[in-house]
Amino acid sequence: GNNNGVPDDCELLIPHATIPKDPRIKNVGVNDAVVFFKVISPAEQLTEITDDGIRQPEKENDLFWFEQEADEETVHANNFNPNWIQLTSVAENGTIVDFPGVNDEGRGKVYIFGYHTRVEPEETTETLFDKVQNKKYGSKTIGPNEVETIHIESYAIQADEIRRAGINVDTNAEIPEQDLAYIYNTFCNQNSENLK
User: What is the pLDDT of residues 112-133, one digit of tens each?
Assistant: First the structure.
């Protein structure tokens, strides 16, 4: 905080430092719901450095690993809660998009998840992740006072009467990725401006 151009400890995330987080969704409605998270993780031009010190080719990527509480500090990989199903068939998942506000460049990597079962009124899901770990990297695009913000959106769709080609989508048991992706694409993605 002394503005001498050298980042102080509190101004700089140390490589592999972790921060506790606990995103979860509580159904405050009166009907069972199918719920989703869309995470936009800030992205920069990075030269990532592996655990054995090898510099990777520069590419645009997000800055953080998303991990579970029990993950060791030496685990350097995403480890989302398996009860949150990553919607890999949704086109936007895994892409880097323009998203003003996550950093100076307004660029972020998208992760989309659906919860594995319907959520009853007053029920709360498990956390999507429990902590965020800074990756180890070099970057020429991160400014000395730049703020990197993880943006998380949640969506809830009433669990009953979801139809595909005139047939109800069964949400009474485990909901497979294919059905979660259909629900997300039909109700959340196409109508996202009306859901915020």
Answer: 999 999 999 999 999 999 999 9
Which residue type, as a one-letter code, is found at position 127? Answer: T
pLDDT tens-digit readout, 40-80: 999 999 999 888 889 999 999 999 999 999 999 888 999 99
The residues, ordered by sequence, that sit 6+ positions from 20 with a Cβ below 8 Å of its Cβ are: 130, 131
Block residue for tokens 């080609």: 165
d(CA 57, CA 41): 20
pTM score of the predicted model: 0.88
**Beta strand 167-168 pairing with 18-20:** unpaired
Question: Bridge-partner residues for 19, per DSSP?
Answer: 132
Cα dist from 149 to 21, 103, 123, 191, whole Å: 13, 6, 28, 24
Q: What is the rounded distance in angstroms from the CA atom of residue 56 to the CA atom of residue 67?
A: 22
User: Residue 194: which H helix or E strand, with range?
Assistant: helix 192-195
3-state secondary structure of 188: helix
Write the pLDDT tens digit of every residue in 142-152: 888 888 999 99
Task: Measure the CA–CA gap between 86 and 83, rounded to whole angstroms.
Answer: 9
